[in-house]
Amino acid sequence: MKTTLALICLCGTISFTSCSQKSTNTSGSQLTSVETKDPNADYKPAFEGQTRVRAIETKTPYKFEVLTEKLDFPWGVKTLPDGRLLITEREGTFRIVDASGNVSEKIIKGVPEVNSKGQGGLLGVTIAPDFAQSRMIYWTFAEDISGGTVTSAAKGRVADDEKSIEGATVIYRAIPSYNGTLHYGGRILLDKDGSLYVSTGERSDKVTRPQAQETDSGLGKIVHITTNGEPIVDGPFAGKARPELFTYGHRNVQGLAVHPETGDLWSNEFGPRGGDEVNRIIAGKNYGWPTITYGIEYAGKQVGNAIQQKEGMEQPVYYWDPSVSPSGMTFYSGNAIPEWKDNLFIGTLSGLHIIRLDIKNNKVVGEERLLSDEIQRFRDITQGGEALYTVTDQGRLYRISKK
Fold first, then answer.
1. pLDDT at 171 over 60
2. pTM for the full model?
3. How far apart are CA 236 and CA 85, in angstroms?
4. For residue 332, which of 324, 328, 340, 385 is within the disulfide window of CB 3.0 to 4.6 Å?
5. 297 near 303, Cβ under 8 Å?
6. Where are the domains of the chain?
7. For 109-268, which CATH superfamily applies?
């Protein structure tokens, strides 16, 4: 086994080599993978390179630093035009942090009430392309309505004095509501045309799982809406019960990102015990949950009929077993660290690291694990200038940049 090489500096640990060893992937071939643990299930991948690809390591020296540890359960982070960072906190507050780590007071006034029980709260956030002029932002949250809670999307204006949100309006609710506290999904992303993608969860419980496969339900979906909450014209489900649907058959999507070169939408989602996925999202497609999965139930039993492939259902581009619990993600489009160009970076929760995936022709060809010595639950990650910024459940904000 290779050991981790590290340098200690004032800003933290600079990691150059990920821990890796020879392991056997589920197709039986020998390769060097970052994953050293045995899988939970003896399932076979649908194609070579779908799991446990070769380990890669960053050659360009880089550093990371903790800008602050004063955040309260941050969930979403987005870079503002002036280089500061807009951050959501699960209890229902926004924060703004500058490059020196100075944290604003909690922005509470004008924010719709959230249900922060379980996995709920104030969740994903994105900003208008013309934020410098309009100061408009869009976010998702767990909202109480009749019958339970829903994943909702809202919009509003950050006041000039940055002490309130003005004109907050709920623009979308993923109905039906459900009296539960799990699997809200909750990422929100603007596409190049200025419309919104919103991810929802299937609310976890076995009674709601089948709704991921039902196209008259908003659970377990990626939806495509205007900034006013209207379905996109000529979407794949136009004229049907829920015309805002873009894809279905999802479990709990907490990562959305657009590839900087191709413009394709990518997502990640939690599997149960194993079977976490990265998907390339294609309009109208069915991504399989809970009919097909590479995971098992938390208690160890099979999920459904324990099948991993079925005609008419999309295969994940990549999956993990054991789970890493993937959350927020972004593609790196900078030039400071050349080998990171167009790579996908994913924060992980139970994995306690940041994943770097090298993707070529829509296929993962290499994987690296970063910041694993920090022992943090990395909830979201975004790019700002040539650097990456990531927030953790423990309240930290990191900057990762070329040394």
1. yes
2. 0.93
3. 35
4. 340
5. yes
6. 109-268
7. TolB, C-terminal domain (2.120.10.30)
Positions marked active-site: 183
Report residue 131's pLDDT band, with 50, 70 and 90 as the boundaries: very high
Q: What's the number of CA atoms in the CB half-sphere (13 Å) around residue 140?
A: 30
Is the model's pLDDT at 11 over the cut of 50? Answer: no
Q: What is the pLDDT of residue 362?
A: 98
Q: Which two tokens stand for residue 227?
A: 């900034």
pLDDT above 80 for 7: no
Confidence of residue 18 (pLDDT cuts 50, 70, 90): very low
What are the C-alpha distances in Å from 35 to residues 3, 25, 52, 203, 346? 14, 9, 7, 29, 16
Using CA atoms, how far residue 378 sits from 64, 86, 181, 254, 329, in Å, is 14, 16, 21, 12, 10
For 282-330, write each residue's pLDDT tens digit: 999 999 999 999 999 999 999 999 999 999 999 999 999 999 999 999 9
Three-class SS of the chain = CECCCEEEECCEEEECCCCEEEEECCCCCEEEECCCCCCCCCCCCCCCCCCCCCECCCCCCEEEEEEECCCCCEEEEEECCCCCEEEEECCCEEEEECCCCCECCCECECCCCCCCCCCCCEEEEEECCCHHHHCEEEEEEEEEECCEEEEEEEEEEECCCCCEEEEEEEEEECCCCECCCCCCCCCEEECCCCCEEEECECCCCCCCHHHHHCCCCCCCEEEEECCCCCECCCCCCCCCCCCCEEEECCCEEEEEEECCCCCCEEEEECCCECCEEEEEECCCCECCCCCECCCECCCCCCCCCCECCCCCCCCCCEEECCCCCEEEEEECCCCCCHHHCCCEEEEECCCCCEEEEEEECCEEEEEEEECHHHCCCEEEEEEECCEEEEEECCCCEEEEEEC
pLDDT tens-place string over residues 87-97: 999 999 999 99
